Amino acid sequence: MHHAVQHGAYVGVLACCVRMCSYTSVSSGTCRFIPLLSQLMDWQHSSLRAAATDVLIEVVSKRMEPTAKINLVQQLNVVDAMERLSSNLVAAAGANKAAAAAGPCMKANASAAGTAAAANAQALHDDEELLGKYAKLLATLAGEVMDALKRVENVIISFTVAGLGVDDEAGRDAGAAAQTANRLLDSLTRAVLTAFCSGLDTISMPLVPFISAYVARLRALVKRGQQLPAAAQMHLQAVLQGVAAATRYPDNGANEADDGSEGPGLGSSSTTASSSTIGVTANGSGRLSDADLVAAREEQYEVEERRKELLVLLKNAAKLAFREALNFVAGKLQAVLAADGSSGNGLSNGSATAAGAVAGALKANGIAGSVPFQDSELAVTLVYELGEGAPEEALKPSSGTLVQLVLL
Predict the structure, then answer these.
(1) Quick one: average pLDDT of 157-173?
(2) 197-238, pLDDT tens digit by residue?
């Protein structure tokens, strides 16, 4: 049916399926319907792809017993599809960055072998609504599996407390379900984190609630004295990378000047300066217009709002792996300093997350003119936020690892 031209009618049918999912039980027939949804998600019409994604989200979100939910996800055989979807989301984010860097010449300069892939990635990037739906599907699948796993683990704990042996049939079933759920969760978490590292807000932000819940789960395991999953350290490293990518100011944004200065919105050391004294124009030849100032301030507000969740996630991940977080942040800071061949004090401002303080600290170190302000501001912000949640040992004046970092 999906080869027909009148795809609008099929979008309506799928919309009806979404409504029906709220009062229809999930059966083996539903599972046979899933392969068609997977095909439609790869179809050329974005409306069909979006509608099929909505149906799949509703199917997976159905309330049911945890073992039934785990079996459903396993029977759907969508984990491999989600990994491919995650790669497509990253390709779409890459298309966005390439378009920003190369402008309208991007497609003309593409190699013959990569033209189709680049076009598909660009088409996906251009549809922000579809990107958001795909990200929601990834987060929903992973979240549902993790919730089911938690409920199964609670059953196992109850059996243990009640003194029931592992040979009990219910205990064996719960154990098998937990093993299956752990495998599914590992694969889905890998796909989620791959997409999270894309640096595209439309993709990254819908994934934050699941990632926050996943980090909270790891912290709960540590608190109970249980062993972390084998891939936990790799996942935490990806969380740090994704937070940094999502926290960074956008390239070619309202706060960036083409002459390499610290940017119009971030170039003032005073947040109360008037519009006639803040920043420079893109070519450095004059003052910003009121419209440019408004755009810069709006962008700052959007970034600050986005960072509220992301920086909490950074601190929680650091509590699980502070050494890894410290090394990651140190790498960001050292890369900024090495780009200019500069080092020295002055990056330990307590108010480093404020735009004016960042600009002043970077200028004092002689790096503001040769390093993109996005990288410089990000490095200082990460250092400051990591310090806010650092253990006491890291803050000791003489031997603390974080103290040594800010004295680079």
Answers:
(1) 67
(2) 988 888 999 999 999 999 999 999 999 888 888 899 999 999
Biggest CA-to-CA distance, the chain = 79
pLDDT single digits (tens) 240-276:
999 999 999 988 777 765 444 444 455 443 333 333 3
The answer to whether residues 194 and 90 touch, using CB atoms and an 8 Å cutoff, is yes
Per-residue b or e along 13-24, where b marks 16 or more CB atoms closer than 10 Å to that residue's CB: ebeebeeebeee
Tokens of 151: 């409920």
Residue 67 CB neighbours (<10 A): 19
Pairwise CA distance, residues 255 & 265, whole Å: 5
